[in-house]
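Q: How would the structure tokens look for this protein?
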Amino acid sequence: MSVAAALPRRLSVSRNDIENFLFEEAALLDDWKLTEWVALFEPGASYYVPTAGAPDDADPATSLFYIADDYHRLTERVKRLLKRTAHVEFPHSRCRHMISNVRIIGGDDQAFAVTSNFATYRSKRGRTELYFGHHNYVKTFADGAIRIRRKTSFLDSDDIAEQGKVSIII
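A: Here is the predicted structure in token form.
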């Protein structure tokens, strides 16, 4: 019996619903529809990217993070990335976000945990970079919609010296 099958049914959404949500999130990022992407977050949400190789219990209050955005900073990041003055991402990189191994860890409609693996390819100026790792989410389900309360993207590489920076949404 799988771990997901052993969980009590306290959610109004299925793993298939969550996978479809994550695939849609990836498509929005691939198409640089960042305004629509940030709308997937509930007000007050947060988005984190700890340094490469950080453990799952890393905390932005005590550890260095590449990105530690509250909702306001996240919306401002999206606005900046969509401007022509964001030279590092204008013209935009070509990206592909691959999602796999989606699991609902537990919770209920008010707050449930989801994890997935990712591989994000970024191509720009004749160079292709790979960011890989896993996402940990806290999501909610209300009024027929799934929303992101917190997203943490853990890079499973030792470092990002090869990539040099994280200028895209992972």
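The two ends are 32 Å apart (CA to CA).

The mean pLDDT is 89.

Upvote if useful.
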